[in-house]
Amino acid sequence: MSQFKPFHLAFPIRDIEETRKFYGDLLGCDIGRSTEKWIDFNFFGHQLSAHVKPEELNLAKANEVDGKNVPVRHFGAILPWEEWHALADKLKDHGMEFVIEPYIRFKGEVGEQATMFFLDPSGNALEFKSFQDQGQIFAK
Questions:
Q1: Dist CA 51 CA 68 (whole Å)
Q2: Which SUPFAM superfamilies does the annotation name (predicted)?
Q3: Looking at CB atoms within 10 Å, which of 33, 50, 59, 60 has the fewest?
Q4: pTM of the model
């Protein structure tokens, strides 16, 4: 892959404090600038800007992938294998209610990956995944 290029994503939330606790405390994202209407996070090297705009919240519709109902609108990160498993364990210990429990998708096929889906406090869907072979990220 080419040199790392961070992306920026702005998304709606309903409450600054619950969002700060979820992304900052639970997921371990460093907090950047903020006001009473928005807050920035270092999301695994990428810039997330969460804006208080509850009227824009819309639970994602699902699409079937590997026999599971995957939320169509979602974002997340690809983590190293051990880090993904540590996060899955942390979330389970925290009592996270998963949309899709942590599991291995496409087992034994091209693109085999560990994946899990869950919602932030505002109902935004997140997917965290991992590949034992990073070369499989864009494999066909």
A1: 30
A2: Glyoxalase/Bleomycin resistance protein/Dihydroxybiphenyl dioxygenase
A3: 33
A4: 0.88
Could you read off the pLDDT tens digit of each residue along the chain, which spans 140 residues?
568 889 999 999 999 999 999 999 999 999 999 999 999 999 999 999 999 998 888 766 888 887 878 877 899 999 999 999 999 999 999 999 999 999 999 888 888 899 999 999 999 999 999 999 888 788 88
Residues 6+ apart with CB under 8 A from 103: 114, 115, 116
In whole angstroms, give the CA distance from residue 22 to residue 25.
6
β-pairing, 125-130 vs 113-119, is antiparallel
